[in-house]
Design a protein that fits this description.
This protein is an alpha/beta fold. It has 2 domains: 178 residues, P-loop containing nucleotide triphosphate hydrolases (Rossmann fold, 3-Layer(aba) Sandwich), CATH 3.40.50.300; 67 residues. The N and C termini lie far apart (42 Å). 35% of the residues are buried.
């Protein structure tokens, strides 16, 4: 007979990222102190916090663009700091990253932007890389004629989708998104949120999503982690997070904007259930 402890162990999803006792300091300024966080396989985790809480610093620490002052980060069960350069590169190729401003090369068209990592890291011939690039553009909902356009010729929403296509170029297992809906109008942001969920479900992705957008949290995320007081104050389902007794959390989730996002989400769910 299986005891309850065994059942809980089996039912708990596997962590693909484990952050333990993380410290990030910049001179005398402490951003994170003794921070712990788990990212579970297959989930979309939203990371929120007030200005200066180090949301993007945490993302950059995990993907290897910033070296923490102390602590350890295990990805796929491996401590990144203990890997050889080759092993670390292989692990990081299992990541896809969409930066806040897209970070596309302005001198390259979309096809070239997306094909570049496939040529450089996978050694694919240009023709094969560009064929895969066209598939990634289609996957993110961009029309075929956008392939030859340059970033400067695109709307903000199209730039975000193109940057997402590049983040997906090497078939990552974990997708990191830094403020993906920033600068988009409400319709464009809602469409992008829906796209993220669709891609997660279709491709089996795990998603680490830094955002300030309450609509994104409600419609997209399985769990929400709140950065406050230099650590993860709470990481849970959004309804549990919103009920947490903390001044910033209450202002954020129970203020006018938070109540509007919650109401819109409930109305959308009720409409979906009636269909």
């Amino acid at each position: 007979m299986t005891n309850s402890t065994d059942q809980q162990a089996h039912s708990k999803p596997a962590s693909v990222i484990e952050v333990r006792s993380l410290d990030n300091r910049f001179g005398s300024h402490v951003v994170h102190e003794n921070l712990d966080l788990d990212l579970f396989r297959g989930e979309i985790l939203g990371v929120v916090g007030g200005s200066g809480t180090g949301k993007s610093v945490l993302l950059r620490s995990i993907v290897g663009l910033h070296t923490p002052s102390e602590g350890c980060i295990h990805v796929f069960g491996k401590d990144l700091t203990e890997l050889s350069i080759k092993e670390r590169s292989e692990t990081e190729q299992r990541f896809g990253v969409l930066f806040q401003r897209g970070a596309l090369f302005t001198s390259l068209n979309l096809l070239q932007n997306i094909a570049l990592p496939l040529i450089e890291h996978c050694g694919l011939p240009r023709s094969d890389a560009e064929e895969l690039a066209r598939m990634k553009l289609a996957l993110t909902g961009l029309p075929a004629d956008s392939a030859r356009k340059y970033p400067s010729e695109l709307s903000g929403g199209m730039v975000k989708r193109a940057a997402l296509a590049r983040a997906l170029a090497m078939d990552p297992e974990i997708l990191f998104l830094d403020e993906p809906t920033a600068g988009l109008d409400p319709i464009g942001a809602a469409a992008f949120d829906k796209l993220i969920v669709t891609l997660r479900d279709a491709l089996g992705l795990t998603v680490f999503l830094v955002t300030h957008d309450l609509d994104t949290l409600y419609t997209t995320c399985d769990r929400v982690a709140v950065l406050s007081q230099k650590r993860v104050l709470v990481a849970d389902r959004i309804e549990n997070v919103a009920a947490t007794d903390d001044p910033w959390i209450q202002d954020y989730f129970q203020g006018p904007r938070g109540r509007a996002a919650s109401y819109a989400f409930r109305a959308q769910e009720q409409s979906r259930l009636r269909e």
